[in-house]
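Re: the 338-residue chain
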Amino acid sequence: MTRRNTILLVALATATVLLFFLHLLIGPVPLSAQVVMDALFSGSVADGSSRIVLGVRLPEALTAILAGSGLAACGLLMQTLFRNPLAGPSVLGLSSGASLGVAVLMLARPVWIIAALPSDLAVVIGSFLGAIGVLLLIMLADRRMGDGVALLIVGLMVGYLCGAIIDVLQVASPGSALKGFVLWGMGSFSSVVNDRLLWLALPVITGLLAAVLLMKPLNALLLGDAYASSLGVPVQRTRRMIMWTTGLLAGTVTAFCGPIAFLGLATPHVARGLCRTSDHRTLLPVTIVCGAFLALFCDLIVKLPGVSGLPLNAVTSLLGAPVVAWVLWSGKRWARTV
Protein backbone atom coordinates (compact mmCIF):
# COMPACT_ATOMS: atom_id res chain seq x y z
CA MET A 1 0.00 0.00 0.00
CA THR A 2 1.41 3.39 -1.00
CA ARG A 3 1.87 6.20 1.48
CA ARG A 4 -1.00 8.13 -0.13
CA ASN A 5 -3.43 5.24 0.24
CA THR A 6 -2.29 4.57 3.81
CA ILE A 7 -3.12 8.18 4.68
CA LEU A 8 -6.44 7.81 2.84
CA LEU A 9 -7.36 4.68 4.79
CA VAL A 10 -6.46 6.30 8.12
CA ALA A 11 -8.46 9.43 7.20
CA LEU A 12 -11.49 7.34 6.24
CA ALA A 13 -11.27 5.32 9.45
CA THR A 14 -10.99 8.51 11.52
CA ALA A 15 -13.96 10.06 9.71
CA THR A 16 -15.97 6.87 10.35
CA VAL A 17 -15.19 6.99 14.08
CA LEU A 18 -16.25 10.65 14.23
CA LEU A 19 -19.45 9.88 12.32
CA PHE A 20 -20.10 6.96 14.68
CA PHE A 21 -19.88 9.31 17.67
CA LEU A 22 -22.09 11.87 15.89
CA HIS A 23 -24.60 9.10 15.28
CA LEU A 24 -24.88 8.64 19.05
CA LEU A 25 -25.56 12.35 19.57
CA ILE A 26 -28.22 12.99 16.94
CA GLY A 27 -31.77 11.72 17.05
CA PRO A 28 -35.31 12.64 18.05
CA VAL A 29 -33.90 13.30 21.53
CA PRO A 30 -30.65 15.28 21.17
CA LEU A 31 -27.96 14.34 23.68
CA SER A 32 -24.80 16.11 24.76
CA ALA A 33 -21.34 14.67 24.22
CA GLN A 34 -20.87 14.35 27.98
CA VAL A 35 -24.02 12.26 28.37
CA VAL A 36 -22.94 9.95 25.57
CA MET A 37 -19.43 9.54 27.02
CA ASP A 38 -20.84 8.78 30.46
CA ALA A 39 -23.23 6.20 29.03
CA LEU A 40 -20.48 4.50 27.02
CA PHE A 41 -17.77 4.36 29.65
CA SER A 42 -19.59 4.30 32.97
CA GLY A 43 -22.00 1.56 31.89
CA SER A 44 -24.81 3.24 33.79
CA VAL A 45 -28.35 2.55 32.57
CA ALA A 46 -30.10 4.26 35.45
CA ASP A 47 -31.56 7.15 33.46
CA GLY A 48 -33.39 7.47 30.17
CA SER A 49 -30.47 9.06 28.32
CA SER A 50 -28.19 6.11 29.02
CA ARG A 51 -30.86 3.69 27.87
CA ILE A 52 -31.25 5.64 24.63
CA VAL A 53 -27.51 5.49 23.97
CA LEU A 54 -26.85 1.89 24.98
CA GLY A 55 -30.15 0.32 24.01
CA VAL A 56 -31.06 2.17 20.81
CA ARG A 57 -28.37 4.29 19.20
CA LEU A 58 -25.31 2.14 19.85
CA PRO A 59 -26.82 -1.05 18.36
CA GLU A 60 -28.10 0.94 15.38
CA ALA A 61 -24.69 2.51 14.72
CA LEU A 62 -22.91 -0.85 15.02
CA THR A 63 -25.49 -2.43 12.71
CA ALA A 64 -24.87 0.29 10.12
CA ILE A 65 -21.11 -0.31 10.29
CA LEU A 66 -21.48 -4.08 9.93
CA ALA A 67 -24.08 -3.87 7.15
CA GLY A 68 -22.24 -1.18 5.19
CA SER A 69 -18.87 -2.90 5.33
CA GLY A 70 -20.39 -6.29 4.51
CA LEU A 71 -22.36 -5.06 1.50
CA ALA A 72 -19.40 -3.04 0.20
CA ALA A 73 -17.07 -6.05 0.36
CA CYS A 74 -19.81 -8.16 -1.23
CA GLY A 75 -20.11 -5.72 -4.15
CA LEU A 76 -16.37 -5.65 -4.75
CA LEU A 77 -16.21 -9.45 -4.81
CA MET A 78 -19.03 -9.61 -7.35
CA GLN A 79 -17.51 -6.96 -9.61
CA THR A 80 -14.21 -8.80 -9.62
CA LEU A 81 -15.75 -12.24 -10.12
CA PHE A 82 -17.81 -11.18 -13.13
CA ARG A 83 -15.40 -8.44 -14.29
CA ASN A 84 -18.52 -6.26 -14.52
CA PRO A 85 -18.57 -2.79 -12.92
CA LEU A 86 -22.36 -2.93 -12.50
CA ALA A 87 -22.43 -6.16 -10.52
CA GLY A 88 -23.61 -5.99 -6.92
CA PRO A 89 -24.84 -8.17 -4.04
CA SER A 90 -28.19 -8.68 -5.77
CA VAL A 91 -26.63 -9.84 -9.03
CA LEU A 92 -27.00 -13.54 -8.15
CA GLY A 93 -30.58 -13.11 -6.94
CA LEU A 94 -29.59 -13.43 -3.28
CA SER A 95 -31.51 -10.33 -2.18
CA SER A 96 -34.54 -11.48 -4.18
CA GLY A 97 -34.33 -14.92 -2.56
CA ALA A 98 -34.19 -13.32 0.88
CA SER A 99 -37.19 -11.15 0.02
CA LEU A 100 -39.08 -14.21 -1.18
CA GLY A 101 -38.36 -16.01 2.09
CA VAL A 102 -39.78 -13.07 4.04
CA ALA A 103 -42.75 -12.75 1.68
CA VAL A 104 -43.67 -16.41 2.18
CA LEU A 105 -43.61 -15.97 5.96
CA MET A 106 -45.38 -12.61 6.10
CA LEU A 107 -47.83 -12.85 3.22
CA ALA A 108 -48.66 -16.56 2.80
CA ARG A 109 -50.34 -17.24 6.17
CA PRO A 110 -47.27 -16.89 8.42
CA VAL A 111 -45.87 -20.27 9.44
CA TRP A 112 -44.08 -18.66 12.37
CA ILE A 113 -47.43 -18.72 14.18
CA ILE A 114 -47.40 -22.52 13.97
CA ALA A 115 -43.75 -22.67 14.98
CA ALA A 116 -44.42 -20.32 17.93
CA LEU A 117 -41.56 -18.03 16.87
CA PRO A 118 -41.50 -14.26 17.46
CA SER A 119 -42.41 -12.48 14.23
CA ASP A 120 -39.13 -10.55 13.95
CA LEU A 121 -37.06 -13.71 14.49
CA ALA A 122 -39.15 -15.53 11.89
CA VAL A 123 -38.41 -12.75 9.39
CA VAL A 124 -34.67 -13.17 9.95
CA ILE A 125 -34.87 -16.95 9.58
CA GLY A 126 -37.06 -16.76 6.47
CA SER A 127 -34.83 -14.18 4.81
CA PHE A 128 -31.66 -16.13 5.51
CA LEU A 129 -33.16 -19.42 4.30
CA GLY A 130 -34.36 -17.74 1.12
CA ALA A 131 -30.91 -16.32 0.39
CA ILE A 132 -29.17 -19.64 1.12
CA GLY A 133 -31.68 -21.51 -1.06
CA VAL A 134 -30.92 -19.26 -4.02
CA LEU A 135 -27.19 -19.56 -3.32
CA LEU A 136 -27.36 -23.37 -3.45
CA LEU A 137 -29.24 -23.14 -6.76
CA ILE A 138 -26.58 -20.81 -8.16
CA MET A 139 -23.81 -23.11 -6.94
CA LEU A 140 -25.48 -26.02 -8.74
CA ALA A 141 -25.69 -23.92 -11.91
CA ASP A 142 -22.03 -22.96 -11.58
CA ARG A 143 -21.00 -26.60 -11.22
CA ARG A 144 -22.90 -27.44 -14.41
CA MET A 145 -21.99 -24.37 -16.52
CA GLY A 146 -18.72 -23.04 -15.15
CA ASP A 147 -19.15 -19.79 -17.07
CA GLY A 148 -19.36 -16.37 -15.43
CA VAL A 149 -21.63 -14.75 -18.01
CA ALA A 150 -24.09 -17.67 -17.98
CA LEU A 151 -24.07 -17.60 -14.18
CA LEU A 152 -24.85 -13.89 -14.22
CA ILE A 153 -27.84 -14.52 -16.50
CA VAL A 154 -29.05 -17.35 -14.25
CA GLY A 155 -28.83 -15.04 -11.23
CA LEU A 156 -30.86 -12.35 -12.98
CA MET A 157 -33.50 -14.87 -14.05
CA VAL A 158 -33.76 -16.23 -10.50
CA GLY A 159 -34.21 -12.65 -9.28
CA TYR A 160 -37.02 -12.04 -11.77
CA LEU A 161 -38.69 -15.33 -10.82
CA CYS A 162 -38.55 -14.49 -7.11
CA GLY A 163 -39.93 -11.03 -7.86
CA ALA A 164 -42.85 -12.52 -9.82
CA ILE A 165 -43.75 -14.88 -6.96
CA ILE A 166 -43.57 -11.98 -4.50
CA ASP A 167 -45.95 -9.96 -6.71
CA VAL A 168 -48.45 -12.84 -6.70
CA LEU A 169 -48.22 -13.12 -2.91
CA GLN A 170 -48.73 -9.37 -2.52
CA VAL A 171 -51.90 -9.42 -4.59
CA ALA A 172 -53.35 -12.28 -2.53
CA SER A 173 -52.28 -11.03 0.92
CA PRO A 174 -54.31 -9.02 3.46
CA GLY A 175 -53.54 -5.33 3.88
CA SER A 176 -51.94 -5.60 7.34
CA ALA A 177 -49.44 -8.25 6.22
CA LEU A 178 -48.68 -6.33 3.04
CA LYS A 179 -47.90 -3.19 5.04
CA GLY A 180 -45.41 -5.09 7.22
CA PHE A 181 -43.67 -6.53 4.17
CA VAL A 182 -43.43 -3.14 2.47
CA LEU A 183 -41.93 -1.59 5.62
CA TRP A 184 -39.35 -4.40 5.81
CA GLY A 185 -38.47 -3.80 2.15
CA MET A 186 -37.62 -0.16 2.87
CA GLY A 187 -34.56 -1.25 4.83
CA SER A 188 -33.52 -0.22 8.32
CA PHE A 189 -30.53 -0.40 10.65
CA SER A 190 -32.68 0.10 13.74
CA SER A 191 -34.29 -3.34 13.93
CA VAL A 192 -31.28 -5.15 15.45
CA VAL A 193 -31.37 -4.97 19.24
CA ASN A 194 -28.54 -5.79 21.62
CA ASP A 195 -29.38 -9.46 22.13
CA ARG A 196 -29.30 -10.14 18.36
CA LEU A 197 -26.36 -7.95 17.40
CA LEU A 198 -23.98 -10.86 17.91
CA TRP A 199 -25.94 -12.96 15.39
CA LEU A 200 -25.37 -10.24 12.81
CA ALA A 201 -21.74 -9.58 13.76
CA LEU A 202 -20.43 -13.16 13.66
CA PRO A 203 -21.42 -14.00 10.04
CA VAL A 204 -20.44 -10.55 8.74
CA ILE A 205 -17.01 -10.60 10.42
CA THR A 206 -16.48 -14.17 9.17
CA GLY A 207 -17.36 -13.08 5.63
CA LEU A 208 -15.04 -10.06 5.82
CA LEU A 209 -12.16 -12.25 7.03
CA ALA A 210 -12.83 -14.65 4.15
CA ALA A 211 -12.75 -11.72 1.72
CA VAL A 212 -9.39 -10.61 3.15
CA LEU A 213 -7.99 -14.11 2.63
CA LEU A 214 -9.14 -13.96 -1.00
CA MET A 215 -7.24 -10.76 -1.85
CA LYS A 216 -4.40 -12.40 -3.78
CA PRO A 217 -6.64 -14.77 -5.81
CA LEU A 218 -8.89 -11.79 -6.59
CA ASN A 219 -5.91 -9.90 -8.03
CA ALA A 220 -5.12 -12.90 -10.23
CA LEU A 221 -8.72 -13.19 -11.43
CA LEU A 222 -8.61 -9.59 -12.65
CA LEU A 223 -6.42 -10.74 -15.53
CA GLY A 224 -8.62 -13.66 -16.52
CA ASP A 225 -9.18 -17.28 -15.53
CA ALA A 226 -6.42 -18.61 -17.79
CA TYR A 227 -3.81 -16.27 -16.33
CA ALA A 228 -4.95 -17.06 -12.79
CA SER A 229 -4.64 -20.79 -13.49
CA SER A 230 -1.11 -20.29 -14.82
CA LEU A 231 -0.23 -18.68 -11.47
CA GLY A 232 -1.47 -21.75 -9.62
CA VAL A 233 -4.80 -20.28 -8.48
CA PRO A 234 -7.55 -22.94 -8.25
CA VAL A 235 -10.06 -20.92 -10.27
CA GLN A 236 -13.20 -23.00 -9.75
CA ARG A 237 -12.63 -23.38 -6.03
CA THR A 238 -11.89 -19.65 -5.72
CA ARG A 239 -15.08 -18.79 -7.62
CA ARG A 240 -17.12 -20.93 -5.26
CA MET A 241 -15.44 -19.42 -2.22
CA ILE A 242 -16.30 -15.95 -3.54
CA MET A 243 -19.93 -16.96 -4.04
CA TRP A 244 -20.20 -18.54 -0.59
CA THR A 245 -18.68 -15.41 0.95
CA THR A 246 -21.05 -13.20 -1.02
CA GLY A 247 -24.01 -15.32 -0.01
CA LEU A 248 -23.02 -15.19 3.66
CA LEU A 249 -22.61 -11.41 3.66
CA ALA A 250 -25.61 -10.49 1.51
CA GLY A 251 -27.91 -13.06 3.10
CA THR A 252 -27.05 -12.05 6.66
CA VAL A 253 -27.33 -8.29 6.09
CA THR A 254 -30.60 -8.65 4.16
CA ALA A 255 -32.03 -10.91 6.85
CA PHE A 256 -31.43 -8.40 9.63
CA CYS A 257 -31.71 -5.06 7.80
CA GLY A 258 -33.86 -5.71 4.75
CA PRO A 259 -32.74 -5.28 1.11
CA ILE A 260 -30.45 -2.24 1.29
CA ALA A 261 -30.19 -0.63 -2.15
CA PHE A 262 -27.06 0.62 -3.94
CA LEU A 263 -24.55 0.41 -1.07
CA GLY A 264 -22.99 -2.77 -2.40
CA LEU A 265 -23.05 -1.55 -6.00
CA ALA A 266 -21.80 2.02 -5.59
CA THR A 267 -19.30 1.82 -2.71
CA PRO A 268 -16.57 -0.13 -4.58
CA HIS A 269 -16.57 2.55 -7.28
CA VAL A 270 -16.22 5.31 -4.71
CA ALA A 271 -13.31 3.42 -3.13
CA ARG A 272 -11.73 2.71 -6.51
CA GLY A 273 -11.92 6.38 -7.42
CA LEU A 274 -10.40 7.44 -4.10
CA CYS A 275 -7.45 5.05 -3.98
CA ARG A 276 -6.91 4.91 -7.78
CA THR A 277 -5.91 1.27 -7.86
CA SER A 278 -7.44 -2.13 -8.54
CA ASP A 279 -5.02 -3.95 -6.21
CA HIS A 280 -7.30 -5.67 -3.71
CA ARG A 281 -4.66 -5.45 -0.98
CA THR A 282 -5.45 -1.74 -0.98
CA LEU A 283 -8.89 -1.63 -2.54
CA LEU A 284 -10.61 -4.11 -0.22
CA PRO A 285 -9.72 -2.36 3.09
CA VAL A 286 -10.65 1.03 1.62
CA THR A 287 -13.94 -0.39 0.32
CA ILE A 288 -14.83 -1.92 3.70
CA VAL A 289 -14.15 1.31 5.61
CA CYS A 290 -15.87 3.39 2.94
CA GLY A 291 -18.94 1.13 3.18
CA ALA A 292 -19.12 1.60 6.95
CA PHE A 293 -18.80 5.38 6.52
CA LEU A 294 -21.51 5.62 3.85
CA ALA A 295 -23.92 3.42 5.81
CA LEU A 296 -23.49 5.60 8.90
CA PHE A 297 -23.89 8.73 6.78
CA CYS A 298 -27.13 7.49 5.17
CA ASP A 299 -28.57 6.42 8.52
CA LEU A 300 -27.62 9.77 10.02
CA ILE A 301 -29.62 11.56 7.32
CA VAL A 302 -32.63 9.39 8.17
CA LYS A 303 -32.33 10.46 11.82
CA LEU A 304 -32.06 14.20 11.19
CA PRO A 305 -34.85 16.36 12.63
CA GLY A 306 -37.46 17.13 10.00
CA VAL A 307 -36.86 14.00 7.90
CA SER A 308 -37.78 11.41 10.50
CA GLY A 309 -39.56 8.48 8.88
CA LEU A 310 -37.70 8.77 5.57
CA PRO A 311 -36.99 5.24 4.25
CA LEU A 312 -33.34 4.23 4.38
CA ASN A 313 -33.49 2.86 0.84
CA ALA A 314 -34.64 6.26 -0.42
CA VAL A 315 -31.46 7.84 0.95
CA THR A 316 -29.12 5.10 -0.29
CA SER A 317 -30.74 5.26 -3.73
CA LEU A 318 -30.48 9.06 -3.91
CA LEU A 319 -26.78 8.81 -3.10
CA GLY A 320 -25.99 5.61 -4.98
CA ALA A 321 -27.86 6.17 -8.25
CA PRO A 322 -25.71 9.19 -9.27
CA VAL A 323 -22.57 7.11 -8.65
CA VAL A 324 -23.82 4.33 -10.92
CA ALA A 325 -24.82 6.92 -13.53
CA TRP A 326 -21.31 8.38 -13.25
CA VAL A 327 -19.84 4.93 -13.86
CA LEU A 328 -21.88 4.54 -17.03
CA TRP A 329 -21.20 8.08 -18.23
CA SER A 330 -17.47 8.09 -17.54
CA GLY A 331 -16.87 4.78 -19.29
CA LYS A 332 -13.62 2.96 -18.71
CA ARG A 333 -12.10 5.63 -16.51
CA TRP A 334 -14.47 4.81 -13.64
CA ALA A 335 -16.01 1.54 -14.75
CA ARG A 336 -12.77 -0.38 -14.99
CA THR A 337 -12.22 -3.28 -12.62
CA VAL A 338 -8.61 -3.79 -13.70
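Residues 48-82 form the longest helix (35 residues).
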